[in-house]
Amino acid sequence: xxxxxxxxxxxxxxxxxxxxxxxxxxxxxxxxxxxxxxxxxxxxxxxxxxxxxxxxxxxxxxxxxxxxxxxxxxxxxxxxxxxxxxxxxxxxxxxxxxxxxxxxxxxxxxxxxxxxxxxxxxxxxxxxxxxxxxxxxxxxxxxxxxxxxxxxxxxxxxxxxxxxxxxxxxxxxxxxxxxxxxxxxxxxxxxxxxxxxxxxxxxxxxxxxxxxxxxxxxxxxxxxxxxxxxxxxxxxxxxxxxxxxxxxxxxxxxxxxxxxxxxxxxxxxxxxxxxxxxxxxxxxxxxxxxxxxxxxxxxxxxxxxxxxxxxxxxxxxxx
Length: 319
Known about the structure:
It is a single chain. By secondary structure, this protein is mainly alpha-helical. It has one domain (73-318): Orthogonal Bundle (MetI-like fold), CATH 1.10.3720. The chain is 73% helix and 1% strand. It contains 15 helices and 2 strands. A two-stranded antiparallel ribbon has the order 1-2. Helix 2 (30-57) packs across helix 15 (287-318) and helix 5 (86-118) runs parallel beside helix 9 (178-205). The longest helix has 33 residues, at 86-118. The radius of gyration is 30 Å and the shape is globular.
């Protein structure tokens, strides 16, 4: 007797054959075990110094403790003294202003160079990239020696050129006044940081689909509109990461400021947080106080970088 279509449609579910139940895969602990040595190494290399710094900030640790005397636990006394220290707040405001100005200039010049390299011929682009790479790879102390000679009071090329243009810069001491000191420091820091931004942003621009730019151009979008609505959204994640790194690096700048101070600048009038911590600890022997300033600087870094981190998380959530 043949089955009708109605019989097939009303066939009981129990008549459907069932295969064997899928086996539940067991997660191997081997990958986690392989991560343990790396995690332990990071904890020792990064975690221990941070914990030691925090503990040191709650102690009275000076030169006597360097020779074996046990430190005294003073709790929050170092932090209370910092809060009431007017000089620290001047140094903090100076450091924030220096950081933001340098980061903004570096990002603007670096992004501009990356956009220009995208439209250069291959030979010119290789020449520009070679110059940027040499500037980036040059040791900091060696490059600072060259910059000191450029801005030297008596034999500096900068004073000679400006004097030749009719300006009164003969014998001008660039490092003697705080404003001109930080101008020189800004030129050096930006010069050293621009290659990283230019290379990173140019690498992001090479991944930009040309079809999008051409379509926007066909639709009548100008150069500014194409950059704002096509190029910028595409490279925005890279810009956020690079901007985050620049803020961190420019806030904790030390070598350039310290060497310029040793070359003739007034340390008290030109100290930033990095050099202030160094002079408190190594120079003044107040290691507990310098540790407290270092923790304060860490908290300030978190505050300044929080907008970048939120923007990065929001960008990741949108994708």
